[in-house]
Each structure stands twice: as C-alpha cells, then as structure tokens.
Amino acid sequence: MVETRTFSFILSFLLVIIGSEAFAQHAINPIIHADVPDPSIIRVGDVYYMSSTTMHMSPGLPIMKSTDLVNWELLNYAYDVLDNGDDLALDNGKSMYGKGSWASSLRYHDGIYYVSTFSGNTNKTYIYTTDDIESGNWKATYFSPSLHDHSLFFEDDKVYMIWGGGEIKIVQLKQDLSGIKRETEQVLVAKAHAPIEKEIMLHAEGSQMFKIDGNYYLFNIAWPRGGMRTVLIHKADNLFGPYEGRVALEDKGVAQGGLIDTPDGDWFAYLFRDFGAVGRIPYLVPVIWGQGWPILGVDGQVPMELTQLPAQKTSIPSIVASDNFKRSENEPDLPLVWQWNHNPVEKLWSINRVEGLISFHTNRIDDSWLSARNTLTQRTFGPTSAAEVTLHLNQLKEGDVAGLGLLQKHYGWIGVKVKDGQKVLQLELIEQENPIIYEGKKIASDRIRFKAYGDFQDRKDLASFFYSEDDGETWTQLGPQLKMSYTLPHFMGYRFALFYYATSDPGGKVDFSDFRISQ
Questions:
Q1: Is position 323 within any domain?
Q2: Domain range for residue 442?
Q3: Same domain, 194 and 128
Q4: Which residues are named in the active-site annotation (predicted)?
Q5: 371 and 298, same domain (yes or no)
Q6: Beta sheet of 186-189, edge-to-edge order
C-alpha cells in the first residue's frame, strides 16, 4: 500500500512538472500548440503534407510533412520572398504587417504538387508548382487580381479557383496558370453564411473544396455576432451546384479548414482555433459519415484526445529549435525554423560557422523596432515557452539598440542601448498603445545573455524578460511583465526575435550566439 501511494505521488508530481501530454497514449489537441493558421493538408500515399500562413515573414508559405497527422516537420518554403516593394522591405516608412501572403491551398494532381496563396498588398494571386515537394524547388506563377481565401480545384483537365467572402464564386484558370479564363466567373453560393440564421459578424470565407465519392463539399467559416467561429459545409453532386448548406461544427471557436482521410479509412477535419497571444493553433476533429454528409466532432464537440492517432513525440514542436549557429560545410546558413520579419537585406547579416555567431549590421537610422530590418524570428509555443541568447556588444556604436524581443504590435523587448558611450540595459513594452522604457544598469562587459519567457496557459498571455551577466547561471528580471495581446494589425502569434538597429550612427555590428528554446 505504501509503495502504491508513493508511486501515485511520484506520477502525479511528474504530470504536473512535465505535463500530461508526455504520458498520453494518444494524440492531444491542439495538434501543434503554436501559430499554424489556415492549414491546407493533402495525403499522397502514406505521407501527409501541410501548408500554412506566415504573413509578412520571409521565407514564407511553409510546407510541412507528417506520417501520422500528429508529428510534423518543416520541409521547405514555397518562396524566399513573396515579391518586391517598399512595404515588403520595410522601406520609406511602409510595412506589410498583417498582410503578405494569406491562406494557402495545397493540392496534388497528375504527379505535380501545387500550393497557392494571395496577397492584398500586392493584389496578386500566386501559384507555386513542383514535381518533388520534399526538395523544395518551387516554380512561381502569378496573376492579378488577388483571389481572397481561395481553393485550388482540379476537375478533369481543367483547373479552377473557388474564392470569396459571403458570396462564394468559382473561376476557371488558364492552362498555364497565368491568369483567369475570360467569362468563366460565376457564383457558387450566393449567401454562404445563411445556414447560421443569425446576425453575422464575419461573412463566410476560408473556402476549401473537396470531391469525395462523386459529391462536392465546400468548407467555409462564418462568425455570428455574439457567437463563435463556425464551420459551414455546402454539398452538391455537381461542381457548379446547386449547393445545400449546413452548420457542421460550433464548439470552442475551432473552425476553418477541410477534410483528410488516413490510409486506414479514418476521417478527420483539420481546423484551427484563435487562442490569444500564441496565435491560431491547429486541431484535428474526428469525422464520421451519415447520409452523404461529414459529421464533425463527438456529439458536436471537439475532443481533446484523439484515440485513433498516436501521441505527440515531444512537447516542444519541431517547427522551432535551439541553434548554436555552428554549421558544417553542407548545411544552409539558417535552419528552416528561422524566418525574417519582412524581406531581409542579405548584405547586412552573416554567419560565422566555426565560432557560432550570427552577425547583424546597420546601414540606416530607424526610430523603432517595428521599422528595423533584419529581425530574425521563431514562433512562440504553448502552454509556456522561453528563448534565450547571448549578445556580443563590442562593435556597437552610439545610439545602437540590440536585443531579444517578443514581436507583435504590442511588443516587448529586453536589450542594450548605447547612450553617451555607455551600454545601458533597457526594457521596452507597449502599454496602452504607447512604448514605455524601463532602464536598467550600465553594462561594463561586452557580453550579456537575455531571456524572454511567455506564459500562454489558459490565455494568461504574460511575458517576462531577464538578463544574465554570467552566461545564464543566474537571472535577474528587468521591469514588469508584458500583457501580450493578439492584434489584427499584425495578425500573427507572438514571435521570439533577435534584432538590431541604429538610432543615430549607422555602420555598427552585433553578434548573437547560443540561441536556446525551452518550455
């Protein structure tokens, strides 16, 4: 009896410290507790591929791979930079925060992989193709206009796009994908949110089309006022309709996505959930079929445990990673987990592969972090996550600012600013829409380590910032916590970010080393 009690106590203690997911026998929702919005998933044989949205980040339009629908790895990106222009490059006071490339559509047809996206700030629709999705050699084609929340769809020898908001339309594309065939546009569903029968705050959007057993299934979401994001499905036995619509799921705000089956014949809806500062996180929802309709959830609800699927192999998603910046000759300069905020300026950064340093340079003056180029980012993740990094400060110039931040409109960062020739610790937080600076001690050393910690449990969304003068042996918190908030002007979950900019005298340099991710 004593031994049993002792074992139970130890197990309970470990569950609290490590998290119940580590002992799960099955997959736990969310599938990835990080910002992976607007998923589009295909299965080719026994392998699943997923695309997602990364907005204003470069490279962009990530392609991921899984063999079990649960554990995902990054394969490549469809593009290095989306396009050119001042807003994409953070030039002349312009930016594309909250813009860039939005919801993608991933498809496989006749041996070719297609992934498409659209951008409101360029007014273009982009289609990328490859015959080898794992090599990442994507060919780009684009045209105007930008087709909002579209779905690529192949029928016989024709290719279509279904898109729109409220009114869902279809159009045929030219065979070479270079544009829209004239006089092919028509309305598929005139008022796609009608099945909700409530006042609508967000009209139906997020189209994804599927053909299963001769029927056509159009997935959308809509948001009734005072309610939550809701899954809508329209069904027809002809691509061009008429369509019958139903509310398919209304639980926890889990919505927007489509259908995927396993080789064993199980079906799931892949969807995502707005979950505060960490971002929009993906869920899998079991599906059964009844009278030709997919029935989502268990008694209309999203289960937290998925008994048909294996458990997550790690509690830290593989789409983030620590990095010591040391590289072998055959490795790329940056692993796929890193993305630049906007288009990078290649001549202003470099890697010392032997010493394990990434160096940033400046060639202009900026007045704030959000206008600074070459901010290097990785996703935060839940329920808690931390990043730490060492800065080497011996080549900073007067007015230079460098540090580690949590990037969103309501950002926070800890860093060093050179004032009157002295290196001064600073914490900058956005509080009530205004930047507030908390100044710390002067730093005599040319080396300091910073840590940013995010608590996303139950949407607590609090961040704390620390510094260490002994390489992380002891930590001191600087200033108060940041209350993080997901904002539409940036439309992205918070990102850990390394940054550097000049406020008075360009031409300096900062080195970062030993970046570590933890829970």
A1: no
A2: 339-518
A3: yes
A4: 38, 205
A5: no
A6: 151-155, 158-165, 167-172, 186-189
**Is 5 a member of any domain?**
no
- Residues β-bridged to residue 58: 340
pLDDT digits (tens, 9 = 90+) for 168-189: 999 999 999 999 999 999 999 9
Q: Are residues 118 and 206 in the same domain?
A: yes
**Phi, psi (rounded to 5 degrees) for 247:** -75, 125
| Backbone phi and psi for residue 514, each to the nearest 5 degrees, phi listed first | 55, 65
Residue type for position 4 = T
Same domain, 276 and 382: no
pLDDT in tens, 365-422: 999 999 999 999 999 999 999 999 999 999 999 999 999 999 999 999 999 999 999 9
Our count of domains for the chain comes to 2
> Which pLDDT does position 136 carry in this prediction?
84
**Could you please report the per-residue DSSP string of 248-312?**
EE-STT-EEEEEEE-TTS-EEEEEEEE-GGG-EEEEEEEEEEETTEEEESBTTB--SEETTSPPP
Write out the H or E segment, with its range, that includes residue 186. Answer: strand 186-189
Q: What is the DSSP string of 59-124?
A: SEEEEEEESSSSS-EEEEEEES-S--SHHHHT-TT---TT-SB---EEEEETTEEEEEEEETTTTE
Structure tokens at 370: 């959000």
Q: Which two tokens stand for residue 307?
A: 């008994």
> CA-to-CA distance for 153 and 211, rounded, in angstroms?
9
**Could you give the CA distance from residue 119 to residue 101 in angstroms, rounded to a whole number?**
5
Torsion of CA 16, 18, 23, 26, to 10 degrees: 100
Distance CA 246, CA 191 (A): 12
Domain boundary among 258, 287, 306: 306
- Kindly report each contact of residues 52-55 with a partner whose C-beta sits within 8 Å and lies 24 or more positions away, as own/partner: 52/104, 53/101, 53/102, 53/103, 53/104, 53/117, 54/100, 54/101, 54/339, 54/492, 55/96, 55/98, 55/99, 55/100, 55/101, 55/102, 55/491, 55/492
Q: 390 Cβ partners below 8 Å, 6+ apart?
A: 447, 448, 449, 471, 512, 513, 514
Q: Residue 329 corresponds to which tokens in the numbers above?
A: 């000759």
Catalytic residue set: 38, 205
Q: Which residues contact 235 (CB under 8 A, 6 or more apart)?
A: 215, 216, 217, 218, 243, 244, 245, 246, 292, 293
From the number of C-beta atoms within 10 Å of its C-beta (0-12, 13-18, 19+), residue 6 rates as exposed
Average of per-residue pLDDT values in the chain: 95
Whether residue 452 contacts residue 405, with contact meaning beta carbons closer than 8 Å, is answered with yes
Give Cβ neighbours of residue 52 (< 8 Å, ≥ 6 apart): 36, 37, 38, 39, 40, 61, 62, 64, 104
**What is the H or E stretch that residue 236 is in?**
strand 230-236
Look up residue 254 and give its two tokens: 């889990």
Residue 370 belongs to a domain with what CATH number?
2.60.120.200
What digits encode the pLDDT tens for the residues 139-170? 999 999 999 999 999 999 999 999 999 999 99
Q: Residue 502 is which amino acid? A: A
386 in any annotated domain: yes
Instruction: Tell me the whole-structure pTM to 2 decimals.
Output: 0.94
